[in-house]
Amino acid sequence: MVLNELLGRFPHAQVRYWRTKQKHEIDFIFLQKRNSAPVTIECKWSANNFNAKNLSRFREKYPEGDNFVVASDVERLHERMSGGNKVKFVNLEQLVELLS
Predict the structure, then answer these.
(1) How far apart are the first and last CA of the chain?
(2) Mean per-residue pLDDT for 82-90?
(3) 16, 33, 78, 82: which could form a disulfide with 29 (CB 3.0–4.6 Å)?
(4) What is the fold of 2-99?
(5) Looking only at Cα atoms, what is the longest distance across the chain?
(6) By C-alpha distance, which of 29, 30, 20, 40 is closest to 83?
(7) Residue 54 DSSP one-character state
(8) Residue 35 CB: number of other CB atoms within 10 A?
(9) Domain chopping of the chain, boundaries
């Protein structure tokens, strides 16, 4: 659902996936423009299921860019530090608005 929305709303952006040999992964890496800072997007049924370990690994290599967790149980956008990174917890509508 998140991928469909990203591709439909941002047809010229690049949406990628990131995974290491050690199985650290990020659901989506969103690049609005060429050479823009990579935006991480993690998708969870519940915001409480988010673990910052994979995000921390990604940000060690690519420190710039926003970090989002999209979850169906998020009613209001909120931010918190997680694994040394600022993470915005949003629902799908809020994600699209913030990326626009």
Answers:
(1) 18
(2) 95
(3) 16
(4) Trna Endonuclease; Chain: A, domain 1 (3.40.1350)
(5) 35
(6) 40
(7) H
(8) 5
(9) 2-99
- C-alpha 23/C-alpha 96 separation (Å) is 28
Nearest to 43 by CA among 70, 7, 17, 78: 70
Placement of tokens 């996936």 in the chain: 17
Q: What is the pLDDT of residues 10-45, one digit of tens each?
A: 999 999 999 999 999 999 999 998 889 999 999 999
User: Count of CB atoms within 10 A of residue 43's CB?
Assistant: 17
Q: Is the alpha carbon torsion for 22, 25, 31, 36 positive or negative?
A: negative
Q: What is the rounded distance in angstroms from the CA atom of residue 59 to the CA atom of residue 5?
A: 25
What pLDDT, on the 0 to 100 scale, is given for residue 34?
A: 82
Structural tokens at position 71: 């979850």
Rounded Cα distance, 31 and 40, in Å: 9
